[in-house]
Amino acid sequence: MILTQITTAATDSLSTADGGDEPVKLISLLFDGGFMMVPIALLAVASIYIFFERFFTLKKASQVPGQFMDNIKEMVQKGDISEARMLCAQSTTPISKMIEKGISRIGSPLKNIEVSIENVGKIEIFKLEKNLSLLATIAGAAPMLGFLGTVIGMIQAFIAIAQEEGSVSPKLLSEGIYTAMVTTAAGLFVGIIAYLGYNYLVSQVQKVVHKMEYTSIDFIDLLQEPR
After folding, report:
1. What would the pLDDT profile of 141-189 be if each residue is shown by its tens digit?
2. CB burial class (10 A; 0-12, 13-18, 19+) of residue 125?
3. What does pLDDT average to over the chain?
4. Which of 3, 66, 82, 84 has its CB surrounded by the most CB atoms within 10 Å?
5. Contact in structure between 215 and 120 (CB atoms under 8 Å)
6. Can you tell me the distance from the alpha carbon of 62 to that of 97, in angstroms, rounded to the nearest whole number?
7. How big is the CA angle at 205 (ends 202 and 207), to the nearest 5 degrees?
């Protein structure tokens, strides 16, 4: 019986405010979550910033002109090394930086050229993965902060109930519970968004890495062709 009353009171408190017919607004409900909503909100802002900053960075990194390698091959075969390096310098993509390093090492043993390209590739991959680990941390930390806020809210609710004289109002109990649960919902929401964003960005990084590997192999094959 008491559970039914609590459920009914919780529904009423979510649908109305101050005993009237005015619906409870989402923003006011978020403020009711308490001080733990502040770090959760900061994590939400940080995750949004990291996602879009990495998204545009990866989008720019993957944009390689369609005729880029064809032009490089033609110039290298003709011996126009300086022009090939100038063409690479016109672009700031990871692929162009790798090829430029390889061109600058033409004349050295093939193994040295491969190592040089590989080293540049590692540096560029590190740049592409910047802040992705932080986004993964947010995906795990936000729900934990939400649960912590809920536990703190539940403790406060039960303290208020213990200090209440006479019979405990189901509405008082239900309001304390749903207010405490707000932080859990907010933390889970931020965590899910950060987790999805992290996995999407990782997949985009892998696509760029595959392009880098394919292009470097293509360039090494070019150097091994008989002239």
Report:
1. 999 999 888 888 788 777 777 776 666 666 666 666 777 788 888 999 9
2. middle
3. 80
4. 84
5. no
6. 13
7. 115
**If 0-12 CB within 10 Å is exposed, 13-18 middle and 19+ buried, where does residue 1 land?**
exposed
Q: Of 148, 139, 153, 158, whose CA–CA distance to 48 is shortest?
A: 139
Q: What is the pLDDT of residue 18?
A: 43
Distance between CA atoms of residues 168 and 177, nearest Å: 14
Rounded to whole angstroms, how far apart are CA atoms 140 and 147?
A: 12
Q: What is the pLDDT of residues 71-129, one digit of tens each?
A: 888 888 888 888 888 888 888 889 889 988 888 888 888 888 889 999 999 999 999 99
Q: Is the pTM of this model over 0.85?
A: no
Per-position DSSP letters for 24-80, written without gaps between them: PPHHHHHHTT-TTHHHHHHHHHHHHHHHHHHHHHHHHHT---TTHHHHHHHHHHHT-
Pair of tokens at residue 51: 């996602």
